[in-house]
Amino acid sequence: MPVAKLNILVVTQYFWPENMRINDLVRNLSEKGHRVTVLTGLPNYPEGSVYDSYRADPGSFGEYAGARIVRVQLIPRGKHSISLMLNYLSFFTVASIVGPWKLRGEKFDSVFVYGVSPIMSAIPGLILGWLKKAPVSIWILDLWPESLRAVGVVRNPALLNIVGRVVSSIYNRADYLLLQTHSFFESVKMYCTREIESERLVYFPSWAEDDFSSSIVPASTLLERDDSVFTVVFAGNVGDAQDFPAVIEAAQALISKTAVRWVIVGTGRMSDWLTDEVRTCKLDNILLLGRHPLEEMPGVFACADALLVSLKTNDVFEKTIPGKVQAYLASGKPILGMIDGEAAHVINESGAGLSCPSGDAEGLAGITLQLALLDADQRLRMGESGREYYLKNYSKSKLLARLEIHFHEATLRNKR
To answer: What's the distance, CA 379 to chain centroid?
Structure first.
């Protein structure tokens, strides 16, 4: 293993106290002795307003696990599309201007960009990489402009073409592009106009946080185990892409067939709609627990008989694997997937659960009933298969060790 310690700059719009996988990466690098600086915005995801705890005491959020945090102002994401676009625009604009000023005079061996939407959040990372003469690695976790088109945010071909040119510029100026799924390679290559060296494109999937892979599971303070019902848990962002209308339809279809308790943990842009729908339809078999800290999730998962992942279908979503899939696999619980593409392939190949096509409420009801009718030993074997698959393909320790090696190799190449 490499022993030299590096000075690494992480650029990310989202960071602690927001629950993001980048927190794990930063903690790991810092604990290994690397000097880590995080350039980020104000915590406001997913509710859309800056956290009250941060407003009350910003100074207490200036360090995380030994890493220094440098924050820039941004417009909170709010509850509407316009405010969300302003949120995106404000971060990469302010971080590109104020970030270099706040980091003036500092040297870095490597710059790492957490490339969730929007990809324009990589722009300040590229600027700082150029200024600091450090290699820039972007972890591509979403595909632009395809994602904009797929969810209907932008439909105008001319505007999509402009975004595509921006994406192409970002990809071509990065030193390394780390891709979260195998399906991303073809899409990313379409926007790389300069010759692509094989070492520039790196397969680098997501992992589950330590809480989910621990052999010691704490008791839940949010949910009690109930063996009289089959409990399905969904954890994560409650957004339009997760297709909760289809989930509600499936829940309603099973009311007369078997006792199923649907537990939704999380908040998002569809939270108000979901609350109103549950109340209007008097669905007392659906529990809405709201957003809770990540460390609460393993205890909730332990009370579940199955874990649900859902995602609307389109050619972009088919190429992604939601981060919760790794957490579900690591937890050793069967998975119910109303999802297409690579995520469905992982569920089926691992033997960790059952899947049906995206948007198929009837199919979701069917596989839920099928799983509920299996005996406990069969479901236990499914969960164990999922955990074995996780350890083989998504082990956090293995992936982060690979990333550390990547940083060292990138730094050495940059000095040649």
So the answer is: 26
7-207+395-415 and 211-393 share one fold: yes
Query: 59-78: buried (b, 16+ CB within 10 Å) or exposed (e) per residue?
Result: eebeebeebebbbbebbbbb
Pick the CATH number of 211-393 from 3.40.50.2000, 1.20.1250.20, 3.10.310.70, 3.40.50.1820: 3.40.50.2000
In this structure, the chain runs to a length of 416
Instruction: Say if residues 88 and 48 touch (Cβ distance below 8 Å).
Output: no
How many Cα atoms are found within 13 Å in the side-chain-facing hemisphere of 145?
A: 19
Tens digits of residue pLDDT in 339-369? 999 999 999 999 999 999 999 999 999 999 9
Domain 7-207+395-415 has CATH 3.20.190.10: no
Give φ, ψ of 156 to 5 degrees.
Answer: -70, 120
pLDDT at 153: 63
* pLDDT > 60? residue 278: yes
Residue type, 250: A
- CA 113, 241, 345, 182 torsion-angle sign: negative
| 306 phi and psi angles, rounded to 5 deg | -155, 155
The pLDDT assigned to 195 comes to 65
- For the chain, what are the domain ranges? 7-207+395-415, 211-393
Structure tokens at 55: 């407003």
In the 8-state DSSP scheme, what is residue 219?
A: P
In the DSSP assignment, the letter for residue 134 is -
According to the model, what pLDDT value does residue 152 have?
64
Which helix (H) or strand (E) segment holds residue 289: the answer is strand 286-290
Residue 342, both tokens: 């690579």
Residue 232 has phi, psi (to 5 degrees) of: -110, 125
Give the C-alpha distances (Å, rounded to integers) separating 322 from 33, 263, 310: 30, 19, 9
